[in-house]
Write a structure and sequence with these properties.
alpha/beta, Rossmann fold, seven-stranded mixed beta sheet, 7 helices, globular
């Protein structure tokens, strides 16, 4: 699909009068999967990092991909791509996911790629599986962000942020069934956090455990009163068009 046609397609989906900006192609395609750039508008990339446990919520990517196919006309790669954060190929991804509930302590290569990716137009959705604000993942990840982007870079997103209207309309971050189950901090977090670079959100950070919320057998989706993966569509569409 040519860039102009893709922009027109996205504009129609988000209902805007003018075509939104596609994910910034700030990186040369060297080392990127050729079929991903040639055949698909979107592919899901999970980031593996040396510390902690990155391979959580294993069914979540398939549910997110299914919703993108159901609700949008994007050409979506059905496969999850797992890349090491230290691998330069992650710089080619239109969207990256990083999660876990243990220690986050990046090595030098991981820090370099994470910062370069975000500063050059990339988008990382980071989800704390502990769904709390003072657990090991939260404290260690936030310390990494302070080291890379400054102590005040990670801030609360207002509930009228464009993220909440990039496709479906939300009044703020949807709650999850895990926030009041006694496993986390027993709070419903009425905000998400993020890091903006030049006015664009490059890191979206959640303590709400969306990964677990969307990690279910797809056959159980029919029993949901409302599809809880719709917010995942917003996150991806914001990543592609902001």
């Amino acid at each position: 699909m040519q860039r102009r046609a893709f922009l027109s397609l996205l504009s129609a989906f988000v209902g805007g009068a003018s075509a939104p900006k596609l994910f910034a192609q700030s990186f040369a395609p060297e080392g990127a999967p050729a079929r991903a750039t040639a055949d698909y508008d979107f592919w899901f990339t999970r980031l593996a990092y040396d510390s902690g446990n990155w391979d959580v919520d294993q069914r979540m990517p398939a549910n997110l991909v299914t919703s993108l196919i159901d609700y949008t006309g994007l050409r979506v790669d059905p496969n999850e791509h797992v890349l090491a954060l230290a691998d330069p190929r992650m710089l080619q991804a239109p969207f990256c996911y990083l999660s876990g509930h243990k220690l986050v302590e990046f090595n030098a290569d991981e820090r370099r790629n994470f910062e370069r990716y975000v500063r050059n137009g990339g988008f990382v959705f980071v989800d704390d599986c502990n769904h709390d604000i003072d657990g090991l993942f939260a404290k260690s990840f936030e310390a990494e962000m302070a080291r890379l982007f400054g102590p005040r870079a990670l801030g609360k997103l207002p509930n009228d942020h464009p993220l909440y209207s990039s496709f479906f309309k939300f009044d703020g971050p949807p709650t999850t069934s895990f926030e009041l189950n006694g496993w986390g901090d027993d709070l419903v977090h009425d905000y998400l956090k993020g890091i903006e670079i030049d006015g664009r959100l490059g890191v979206l950070y959640s303590n709400k455990d969306y990964g677990c919320e969307w990690d279910y057998d797809w056959r159980n989706k029919r029993w949901l009163a409302e599809d809880n993966t719709r917010f995942a569509v917003n996150i991806v569409m914001y990543a592609l068009t902001a």
